[in-house]
Amino acid sequence: MRLALYTFISVVLAATSSGCATLAAADSNALWRIVDGQCVMSMQSSGTPGFCTRVDLQAHYAILKDINGSSQYLLIPTDRVTGIESPQILADDAPPYWSDAWNARTYVQKAVKQELGDEQLGLEINSPYRRSQSQLHIHIDCLRKDVIDVLARYRRDAPGKWHWDTIDGNRYRVMRVASIDGADDPFRVVARDLPNDTTMASQTILVTGAGPSAKSDGWLIVNSSLDLDEGSGSAEPLMDHACKLARKS
């Protein structure tokens, strides 16, 4: 039974990060069933995270290794939250999912057996129109080298101002921030100048370090939307799930 469950989970995780045609065939509740029905239950019953890498019940999130790529992880709430379109992410008491995901970047570094600069690592969330799963999940992995080079021009910008750019053929706006908590939580930063909350459903967000040390250099919030001309509902192509920038160990 355990082998069968593991096989099912492997198939599901492979589907969550593959092309749109495969995504459409995936069980949209699979990630939620894995986290709530297996990882959380295992943590509650035995104090171990089960198939997850980490489960923090107090902070309301789990970290799960994605089967796609050697270094990709997912942050998934242990509460039922559909995704970027959910009003729950903007509630006053919403967990700091982005800062928790950022702290989990250490798992990527352990996977590649190398210390990476914060500007080489990224967090990303897709629009519901570019995802298969009906449970919020933030991708955690390396960035493409050419994307790092493009974003380098914004490393010294004054915080709090959007700048438009074309990256990988799509229109994005980029903002440097000094924090990804509180008012600078990327969900809040993106949402606060949109006409209404429903337009969050068309958004995609990527977060990376503005320089080698985000603590001193700040972070970059990279945002696009399906509502834009040449916009995108997924910034995931800007990430590198093969982490080619890591040196060979």
Description:
The chain has 249 residues and is α+β, with helices and mostly antiparallel strands. It has a single domain, classed as HIT family, subunit A (2-Layer Sandwich). 28% of the residues lie in helices and 21% in strands. Strands 1, 2, 3, 4, 5, 6, 7, 8, 9 and 10 form a ten-stranded antiparallel sheet that branches. The termini are far apart. The model is unreliable at 1-8 and 11-25 (pLDDT under 50).
Task: Present the secondary structure layout.
Elements: H1 2-16, H2 20-25, H3 30-46, E1 54-56, E2 61-65, E3 73-77, H4 97-103, H5 105-112, E4 121-125, E5 138-143, H6 145-151, E6 163-167, E7 170-177, H7 186-191, E8 203-209, H8 214-217, E9 219-225, E10 239-240
In short:
This protein is an alpha+beta fold and 249 residues long. The chain has helices at 2-16, 20-25, 30-46, 97-103, 105-112, 145-151, 186-191, 214-217; strands at residues 54-56, 61-65, 73-77, 121-125, 138-143, 163-167, 170-177, 203-209, 219-225, 239-240.
Keywords for this entry:
single chain, alpha+beta, 8 helices, 28% helix, globular, CDP-diacylglyc_Pase, CDP-diacylglycerol pyrophosphatase, transmembrane, phospholipid metabolism
